[in-house]
Design goal:
The complex is a heterodimer of chains A (223) and B (232).
Chain A (H helix, E strand, L loop, with lengths): L5 H10 L6 E4 L3 H4 L11 E4 L3 E7 L17 E9 L2 H9 L5 E5 L2 E3 L4 E2 L15 H7 L2 E5 L11 E2 L14 E3 L3 E6 L2 E7 L5 H6 L5 E9 L6
Parallel strand pairs in A: 1-2, 1-5, 5-8, 6-9, 8-10, 12-13
Antiparallel strand pairs in A: 2-3, 3-4, 6-7, 10-11, 11-12
Helix pairs in contact in A: 3-4
Chain B lengths: L4 E2 L2 H4 L8 E4 L9 H9 L5 E5 L3 H6 L2 H4 L3 E6 L11 H7 L4 E4 L2 H13 L3 E4 L13 E4 L2 E7 L3 E7 L2 E3 L4 E2 L8 H7 E8 L2 E2 L17 E4 L13
Parallel strand pairs in B: 1-14, 2-3, 2-9, 3-4, 4-5, 9-12, 10-13, 12-14
Antiparallel strand pairs in B: 6-8, 7-8, 10-11
Classes of the chains: A alpha/beta (223), B alpha/beta (232).
């Protein structure tokens, strides 16, 4: 069995973004997704500091300090881009105009709760940013994360142990082991990697898994 | 003749004293009024409330404001300092000397817009069911739990822009605008710093912040550090 790398998880999520959709990519793994956009697909990337139509990260000679994305990276704009202020950027999010938001996560519960903002660091201030707005506002909420923590604890859980970002909002989770939908009946595995048994995947998950009738193999090219 | 341009930083910040609440624009180093923030560091006003998206660009650029314990409260969506260490303001927060009010970023922007638009509070689903809903009135709309969020206003708003005319009309560049319009609306005294003040009016259809929301225009050199984005 070969778990997916971070780049491969990002690649897999990118394949599901449909032509013509408006998408917000959160910090961390989701930002990698822009690198793997299928070439024939026209997507508009939204950044909550005031951009629709974010292009590639600026090269060394095209950096302009007035053009940054939500991760403070200096970026370029794609044709058809628009710039606006934060109230407009969040009206797009909160008003239900974004098709998909992709975020990182600490935990996702079987009822679609997401915990991803407060790592309960005892010596640092908190950081919420736009995560709570994104998970309540976007039409589809997808999470990319490792299937378990570094110490092997499941991240797909019955109830989140970390503080919640949103309640009952996650639609789909992409991990290094599986693609899992959150349904009214709990976690439904759509794809899982080769060489891993259902019992083994269940053992790495903190809540019951069921399997789609057409459950497929999760695979990605070498990246 | 309407001319909102002021000649000195003292005039730009006149009236900013003990207990003032101050909105500071900026995201990822863009639109940050670095010259005004630097001047704030040199003043003596205490018991300040800072209202800004992230603390760390002020902490990184003008740490003296916090070192001297002149801030009693920050209202932010990002309260984490750079790096693994505990910064001075985080230490003050842990010691109970500094209050941090965490606000989801969209609620933050909308609370200021509401404050500037005469809307005292609004319901939103953002944050419902989370720790940030604690103490807030909850009500269902179409079966969706929502929480009541109060408008945000302030004594001052400090904003950097690419160009401002003498009427106070503002033109941003790139992603400079971020919270600028909402802050300009929500503050009693709005100060814009710019390196381009013009006798010529900005073409009306190009105005991002109408001058009615702007009180003072301060012409200064761009003091943005080269790594402004790295300041958060």
């Amino acid at each position: 069995m070969q778990p997916l790398s971070r780049n491969q998880i990002a690649w897999r999520a990118a394949q599901d973004l449909e032509e013509g959709t408006y998408v917000n990519l959160g910090l961390g793994m989701p930002t990698l997704i822009a690198n793997y956009k299928p070439v024939d697909r026209d997507l508009m990337f939204h950044s909550e500091n005031g951009i629709v139509g974010v292009g590639p990260v600026a090269g060394e000679n095209e950096e302009d300090p007035d053009f940054v994305d939500a991760g403070s990276q200096k970026i370029t704009l794609n044709p058809g881009a628009a710039l606006f202020d934060s109230t407009m950027a969040f009206a797009m999010i909160r008003g239900g105009h974004l098709d998909v938001t992709l975020l990182g996560g600490f935990e996702v519960s079987q009822t679609g709760d997401l915990a991803n903002w407060d790592a309960k660091m005892t010596h640092k201030g908190q950081l919420v940013g736009g995560a709570m707005d994104l998970v309540t506002g976007a039409k589809s909420v997808w999470v990319t994360m490792q299937h378990t923590t570094k110490t092997g604890e499941p991240r797909l859980v019955k109830t989140c142990s970390y503080p919640l970002t949103g309640v009952g909002t996650v639609d789909r989770v992409y991990t290094d082991l599986a693609v899992v939908d959150v349904t009214p009946d709990g976690f439904l595995v759509r794809e899982m990697i080769d060489g891993l048994s259902r019992d083994e995947l269940q053992a790495k998950s903190g809540a019951g898994l069921s399997y789609a009738d057409d459950c497929g193999v999760l695979s990605a090219p070498e990246l | 003749m309407i001319d909102k341009r002021v000649k000195t930083v003292e005039a730009a910040l006149e009236g900013l004293g003990d207990g003032a609440s101050i909105m500071v624009n900026g995201f990822g180093g863009t639109g940050v009024p670095f010259a005004l923030v630097r001047s704030l560091e040199g003043m003596s006003a205490r018991n300040l409330t800072l209202i800004l998206n992230g603390v760390r660009f002020v902490d990184g650029f003008a740490p003296g404001i916090f070192d001297a314990k002149r801030v009693s409260k920050v209202v932010v969506s990002a309260a984490r300092s750079r790096g693994p260490d505990t910064s001075n303001y985080e230490r003050q927060w842990l010691d109970g000397e500094l209050e941090i009010e965490m606000v989801p970023q969209g609620t933050f922007a909308e609370r200021m817009r509401a404050g500037g638009a005469g809307i005292p509070a609004f319901f939103t689903p953002t944050g419902a069911g989370t720790d940030l809903a604690a103490g807030k009135e909850e009500r269902d709309f179409d079966g969706q739990p929502c929480i009541l969020e109060n408008a945000l206003t302030a004594d001052f708003a400090l904003i950097r822009a690419a160009r401002v005319d003498r009427w106070g009309n503002v033109r941003f560049r790139g992603t400079q605008g971020n919270f600028g319009l909402a802050m300009a609306m929500a503050a009693r005294v709005t100060v814009i710093e710019t390196s381009d003040t013009s006798e010529e009016p900005i073409p009306p259809e190009d105005v991002h912040v109408p001058g009615i929301f702007v009180d003072r225009v301060f012409h200064c050199e761009d003091m943005s550090p080269a790594n402004a984005g790295g300041l958060g």
